[in-house]
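Consider the tokenized backbone below.
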């Protein structure tokens, strides 16, 4: 086994015959990574759109299968459940407490300009 120093090894590696990369390889890599277009919808938007589509499909199937009377009965049931829920004193108290907290935080924490907030959160190079 023959031993080589680092300089001889580097020369041997650099003397290896290499093939030229295919035409347009760099451009295709850049298009697939850095220049890839942003998706049309975020995950949250897709979830909301999917949920709305599922609800619309459910309502359409409900109308086709049971007609209008079943649909009206379903809406009446949903309305009665909501009215019973929001007539409960504990639910109203928790909603009022949450609304008061949100109002308090909005009014008394003060708003900061965007430039100040972004400057404060930026990393300093001294760390």
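A designed sequence for it:
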């Amino acid at each position: 086994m023959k031993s080589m120093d680092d300089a001889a090894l580097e020369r041997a590696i650099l003397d290896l015959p290499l093939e030229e990369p295919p035409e347009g390889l760099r451009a295709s890599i850049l298009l697939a990574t850095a220049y890839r277009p942003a998706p049309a919808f975020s995950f949250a938007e897709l979830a909301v759109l999917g949920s709305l589509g599922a609800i619309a499909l459910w309502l359409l199937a409900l109308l086709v299968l049971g007609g209008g009377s079943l649909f009206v009965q379903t809406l009446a049931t949903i309305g009665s459940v909501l009215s019973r829920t929001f007539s409960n004193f504990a639910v109203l108290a928790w909603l009022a407490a949450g609304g008061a907290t949100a109002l308090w935080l909005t009014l008394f924490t003060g708003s900061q300009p965007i430039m100040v907030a972004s400057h404060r959160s930026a990393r300093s190079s001294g760390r």
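The radius of gyration is 32 Å.
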